[in-house]
Write a structure and sequence with these properties.
It comes from Streptomyces coeruleofuscus. The structure is a single chain. This protein has 16 helices and 20 strands. With 483 residues, the chain is an alpha/beta fold. A 7-stranded mixed sheet has the order 14-15-16-13-12-17-18, sandwiched between helices. Strands 9-8-7-10-11-19 form a 6-stranded mixed sheet, with helices on both faces. Strands 5-6-20 form a 3-stranded antiparallel sheet. Helix 5 links the parallel strand 7 (150-154) and strand 8. The radius of gyration is 24 Å and the shape is globular.
């Protein structure tokens, strides 16, 4: 696993101008491999290759593009074990998560977009009166989805398989070409995805992968004049900088940014269900997920019981080596990120929060571990309640009535996914419709992978997943004719 990875540009594996940098296993702190540092010129070359490939690829029949995606899904599925082992080493995910939620979901996403869907639909005819635009008549119309062009895909570190697959597959299905800039912490998995696509017969230049630990590669991939659209998953702060660059050239954007998901637990909730759902913040990716229910709003009738059961749940989770089958909580991605998460816990103490459980570093010989931490006695104006921590930390805020709960949930810069727990389904739906979030889970943290995904406010721009991703990676053209 210590080979020096080349770039993938224009269908060729290319040595990087900037040399290589070390990719670290966050559990063992050992070297996983050496990732390439692309120069600005190499990124521009990748964008130019994608531009050159766009014409032929966009003219390829959708069924042929779909067949490439289906073969890529088969290759990924056939290589699931070694791919998952690399993902586990790069990210610190548990073996089960790496296989099921990372590589397995990536294969499923390629398979999903191997299904050809209609790219045009009729619009009801319109009867026009005579006027300055012509004689009276009946006008027919057709709406057609056309590819955007060259798409830069900048992916997140928490899932180097599912996240890029969710961008690349629908973009290619629509006839776009892509330049992928992986997260610097775990780019090696994305190069394996490029290998799978190459083996599946993707033409040269249709998919390009350029990485870098410095900001140069990402900046070049966004600013290149050959790029028509940027699809980004990451922090709101970085998304805002990308949006400024895109705005100057009117590039299309798809932004999935930060979150501070509110879990509104009403006084008639099934507490066991709420605890198991909220508890995923402690365990799933060690809280490094934007959709996590990190901000718990508990109605006073259930507040104390909920805090007690969440603390018990957190204490029972095994923190340790993600290769061990009984490990639930692996490390966070890096030493720097561990320090950041720990600094938020200390900040919470200073702000007056009560550390009910956690708050200390586990006594493990190596690895960037954070103990699952529960902060109670919080108020919604605390920084730990307002800022995305991106770690296994849950804050609990009490409220009195439904009106206050909704107001607290909406009092945030974010709006990605919120949650409601109540045994009264009508009440839960009533509350859900009042929440300013792109998605709401009712009595679940599960997702429907055909439902639109995206955020309100500073949580992003646009929607993807399912058929919505095909819309996201396309322009809509209207064709009108006299009836």
């Amino acid at each position: 696993m210590t080979a020096r990875q080349p770039l993938f540009v224009g269908g060729s594996w290319v040595e990087p101008d900037g040399g290589h940098y070390e990719v670290i296993d966050p559990a063992t702190e050992r070297t996983v491999g050496w990732a390439p540092e692309a120069s600005r010129d190499q990124v521009h070359a990748a964008c130019a290759a994608a531009r050159e490939a766009f014409g032929p690829w966009s003219a390829t029949p959708p069924q042929e593009r779909a067949a490439v995606l289906a073969r890529a899904a088969d290759v990924i599925r056939d290589r699931l074990v070694p791919y998952a082992e690399l993902a586990r080493a790069e990210t610190g995910a548990t073996t089960g998560t790496a296989r099921g939620m990372q590589v397995g979901v990536a294969a499923a996403r390629f398979r999903r977009y191997a299904r050809v869907e209609p790219a045009e639909w009729a619009i009801p005819p319109q009867i026009n009166e005579a006027g300055p635009m012509g004689r009276a008549g009946v006008m027919g119309a057709l709406a057609v989805r056309q590819p955007v062009g060259v798409v830069t895909c900048i992916t997140s570190y928490n899932n180097p398989w599912a996240n890029p697959a969710g961008k690349i597959a629908p973009a290619l299905a629509m006839g776009n070409t892509v330049v992928v800039k992986p997260a610097p912490q775990d780019p090696l998995s994305v190069y394996r995805m490029a290998e799978a696509l190459e083996a599946a017969g993707v033409p040269p230049g249709v998919v390009n992968v350029v990485s870098g630990a410095r900001t140069e590669a990402g900046e070049a991939a966004v600013a290149s004049p050959d790029v028509d659209m940027v699809s980004f998953t990451g922090s709101t702060a970085v998304g805002q900088r990308i949006a400024e660059v895109c705005g100057r050239d009117m590039k299309r954007q798809l932004m999935e940014l930060g979150g501070k998901g509110a879990a509104v637990v009403l006084d008639d909730a099934d507490i066991g269900s709420a605890v198991s759902g909220i508890g995923t913040t402690f365990s799933f990716y060690s809280g490094q997920i934007c959709t996590a229910p990190t901000r718990v709003l508990a109605q006073r009738g259930v507040h104390d019981q909920l805090v007690e059961q969440l603390a018990t749940y957190a204490r029972r989770l095994k923190v340790g080596d993600p290769r061990e089958p009984d490990t639930v909580v692996g490390p966070v991605i890096s030493a720097a990120h561990r320090d950041r998460v720990e600094s938020y816990v200390e900040l919470g103490r200073k702000e007056g929060a009560v550390v009910v459980t956690g708050g200390e570093r586990p006594s493990l010989p190596t690895g960037f571990y954070v103990t699952p931490t529960l902060l109670a006695g919080c108020t919604n104006d605390m920084r730990v309640a307002r800022e995305e921590i991106f770690g296994p930390v849950v804050v609990v805020i009490p409220f009195d009535d439904e009106e206050e709960g909704v107001a607290l949930a909406n009092d945030t810069d974010y709006g990605l996914i919120d949650y409601v727990w109540s045994s009264d389904v009508a009440r839960a739906f009533r509350v859900a419709r009042r929440l300013r979030a792109g998605g709401v889970g009712i009595n679940t943290v599960g997702r429907n992978m055909e439902a639109p995904f995206g955020g309100f406010k500073k949580s992003g721009v646009g929607r993807d997943v399912g058929s919505y991703a095909l819309h996201a990676y396309s322009e809509v053209q209207a064709i009108v004719w006299p009836g």
